[in-house]
Task: inverse folding
């Protein structure tokens, strides 16, 4: 633990840039040549993105030797400087340290010394002619990582007063194939579980985001497995990282889907209760009309139960509003918990309403919807209409009188 903390501090010091004025910069260095030997095979990494990155991926237990040679353009740039060498190699050992004085001679020199957890420290001399170059060689073993893939800082050099980018570190990629395979299988299992959950909600609520997440996760998982099997562990790790990121997003989007589905279920239950309330209301209207004989105590009890159901329904609508607000604010866990609690309450309210409706169905005849009576057409008796009617009546009387006179009193004969 102590070693990892010290190494972390060393890396931070090396990578952090500040507004300080440095005595030593990259302008004081003409070149840095690095050679990395892994199990007897040599590699010459080039500097990229501020590090000497070895292309060959290593495994735990492999032997490594690193030669780090610094060519100075300013001979006295490192005079009297305090220097510290760090490494994340196991059993790190300083094989050779040589500071070559310009014009001849080597100072200081060291060989075959253990690199402590705090780093190997030394102080440069102060020759008048300065130094032409400094050669540092270290060795050690690749430690078995506790992650599937790590970037091991095999060589770190810090110098007092030097800018952080003066001495780029040597980084070696290391893979733990067993853990990598385990993580890959775990990600595939997670994908299958999430995809199974997706299928439950298809056609029920909007699942477009979740579907997209899983589609991209599947694609990256396939690429990661192919690259892993071909031995390209660095790129395989990038793909697996991407797949895991999409799976993590899918987990969050699944919560949203579940919350929206729970909210829909709750709203459906509320709609059922509302339909029961409407049916109960029709029976109560029938009772209130006096069409049903029922004593006062029964009426009071029914009205009390109905009021309670209506109050519960109003509370349920407020709960639905709270669930929707939680979803809008991205509080999916809270929305799901609220919906579950509200559903329990809704189920109890539904049973209350159903029991009351059953009671009314047994006690009261089925309510009939009374058709609205249509008003009879009315005639407006204004002066014109009245004159016409009177004229018609007078005409009828005159005709009847003429017929009677011509008939010679036939009315009398019928009597």
Result:
């Amino acid at each position: 633990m102590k070693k990892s903390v010290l190494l972390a501090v060393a890396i931070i010091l090396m990578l952090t840039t500040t507004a300080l004025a440095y005595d030593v910069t990259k302008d004081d260095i003409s070149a840095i040549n690095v050679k990395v030997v892994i199990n007897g095979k040599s590699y010459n990494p080039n500097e990229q993105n501020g590090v000497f990155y070895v292309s060959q991926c290593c495994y735990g237990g492999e032997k490594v030797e690193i030669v780090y040679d610094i060519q100075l353009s300013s001979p006295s740039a490192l005079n009297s400087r305090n220097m510290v060498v760090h490494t994340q190699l196991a059993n790190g050992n300083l094989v050779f340290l040589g500071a070559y004085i310009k014009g001849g001679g080597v100072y200081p020199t060291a060989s075959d010394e253990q690199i402590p957890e705090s780093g190997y420290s030394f102080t440069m001399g102060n020759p008048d002619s300065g130094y032409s170059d400094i050669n540092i060689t270290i060795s050690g073993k690749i430690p078995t990582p506790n992650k599937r893939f790590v970037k091991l800082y095999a060589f770190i050099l810090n110098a007092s007063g030097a800018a952080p980018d003066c001495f780029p570190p040597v980084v070696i990629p290391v893979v733990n194939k067993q853990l990598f395979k385990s993580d890959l299988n775990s990600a595939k299992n997670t994908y299958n579980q999430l995809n199974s959950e997706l299928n439950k909600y298809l056609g029920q609520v909007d699942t477009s985001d979740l579907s997209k997440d899983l589609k991209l996760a599947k694609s990256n998982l396939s690429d990661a497995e192919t690259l892993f099997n071909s031995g390209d562990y660095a790129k395989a790790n990038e793909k697996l990282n991407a797949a895991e990121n999409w799976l993590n997003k899918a987990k969050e989007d699944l919560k949203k889907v579940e919350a929206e589905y729970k909210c829909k279920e709750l709203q459906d239950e509320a709609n059922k209760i509302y339909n029961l309330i409407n049916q109960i209301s029709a029976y109560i209207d029938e009772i209130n009309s006096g069409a049903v004989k029922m004593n006062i105590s029964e009426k009071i009890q029914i009205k009390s139960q109905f009021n309670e159901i209506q109050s519960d329904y109003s509370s349920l609508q407020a709960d639905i509003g709270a669930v929707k607000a939680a979803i809008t604010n991205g509080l999916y866990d809270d929305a799901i918990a609220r919906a579950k609690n509200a559903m329990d309450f809704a189920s109890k309210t539904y049973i209350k309403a159903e029991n009351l409706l059953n009671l009314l169905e047994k006690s009261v005849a089925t309510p009939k919807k009374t058709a609205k009576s249509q008003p009879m057409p009315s005639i407006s008796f204004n002066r014109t209409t009245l004159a016409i009617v009177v004229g018609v009546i007078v005409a009828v009387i005159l005709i009847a009188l003429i017929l009677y006179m011509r008939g010679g009193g036939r009315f009398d004969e019928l009597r």
About this structure: The first strand starts at residue 29 and ends at 38.
